Amino acid sequence: MLLLLAVSVLINYMDRGNLGIAAPQLTKELGLRDSQMGFLLAAFFWTYALFQIVAGWLVDRYDVARVYALGFLVWSAATLAMGMVTGFAALVAFRLLLGIGESVAYPAYSKILSKGFKEEERGLANGIIDAATKFGPAVGVLLGGWMIGIYGWRWFFILTGGLSLAWLVPWLYYSPRDTTAGQQKQEGPGWLDLVASRSAWATFIGLFCFNYNWYLLLTWLPSFLIRERHFTMGMMSIYNAFPLCVTAVCTITAGWISDRMIAKGAEVVPLRRNFMIAGLLLTAIMLPFATVPSHILSMTFLVLAFCGLGLYTSNCWALSQNLAGAGASGKWTGLQNAVGNLGGVVAPVVTGYLVERTGTFLAAFLTSSAVLLAGVLIYMFMLQVPPKSRTLR
Length: 393
Hints:
- The structure is a single chain.
- This protein is globular.
- It is built from 17 helices and no strands.
- The chain has helices at residues 2-30, 34-50, 52-61, 64-82, 88-102, 105-116, 122-151, 153-164, 168-174, 191-196, 198-227, 233-263, 268-286, 295-324, 329-340, 342-358, 362-381.
- The protein is mainly alpha-helical.
- 80% of the residues lie in helices and 0% in strands.
- It has a single domain (2-176, 189-381), classed as Growth Hormone, Chain: A (Up-down Bundle), CATH 1.20.1250.20.
- The model is unreliable at 388-393 (pLDDT under 50).
């Protein structure tokens, strides 16, 4: 089950990141400006963030495996259709549909992991899931760089979207049916409890700060490597994929280490929070130095910045699952992702504007670092540690 879930996450992030990979060629063919591409990259997050709350309610109320399968079908079809568009408006429409389909993903992941894994196992389980979020874009840039160079950007969307649909066959066959979904009173905080919780809002806003940086890199890094580092499409694919793969290793390692420390008696909330703060600080410090003239130094700083992402993510979701409890993990994650993914709405647009105005990525990277440092302050001073109870019930 965890393996199938991880494969779906890989597909998820390959599909949501493929527009950034195709952007250099697509913008030339369709005559799009940087500001238009920023708008287009952000369109996914409008519906993705908006539908998070609905998705969180659905996975808590109905059979999570079937809800997830429906969302997967929608986003795969939207990806396939992207290869057939002829203009800007159609691209926006299918990116919006992609966001609706993928909105069920994280509430579903959180629900499945919180029900299926113990507290001291969730760091590694979340690390494996999060590693797939890094391998997905890595596979995407490697496959996309090769495919776009030979066949063009349209076939990249058509084939990735079409082949993704094959995942539904084993998922529908092997995933267990939840016959009690919606029939039992759910434990954990309700909607009003979450909205009133200071710690809940700390996780919501903290994720916004992280996602601002993550989606800046996911959507604009290919263009940065080609335009500012002057890489070819093939070189861009390799240099984009490498830090993502390193991050995947970091997130699994961070999840495993934190689990071992918790199993030996460490307090759950302070430990996971400290891992997250360390990750945000590392990324904030290293990212602006990726603009230095030397390719070697630039990639070194970029890899270190990505390592910080790995320290953060596996512990971020494990922390939320701990605070919410299994009964409310879907709605908590839905609200968290709704607020958090507003960072994905803002970052591509702001980055496109700053790059268009300044001609470089330095101002965009400095802005991202400032947002990450704000996230550090949020986790330090806003997240409350429950004195004895491990959830906000």
